[in-house]
Give the backbone structure.
Amino acid sequence: MDWKFSPLQVIIGEVNYSIEDYRKDLREEVLTTLSSFNMDDYSTNFYVDYTYTLFYWLATNQTVLTYSRFIHARLPDDLELKKTLTSTEFLYSLELDNVNFVDMLRAILTTLTLGFLKDGLSIEDARRALKNAVGFSREV
């Protein structure tokens, strides 16, 4: 996806781009990418969540290897695509192909965190507020 603004513009407040806006854009991108597979809603939602979690993982400076381990422990063993979805080669290719999505999410997370701190929240409360805004945290 090519936005008409940069992550820096989000961070400095020149552009208001929320986590909800991001998730909507990411969903549209995933739906477009997977449209030829004619998947049901459950499968589509799975891939949107999988991608969002990966991008969050990368935006918070975690590695593909740790994401592979994280997701491997959570996917059912009988899932046909488990080997592919946890493959570091596959995950590295997603990372390389989606640097813009990761960078934009990093900008949003930075903006949210700075906003919480500016509002007077402690670091711990800001972390909890960010977890609520994002929908999860790495400690999951």
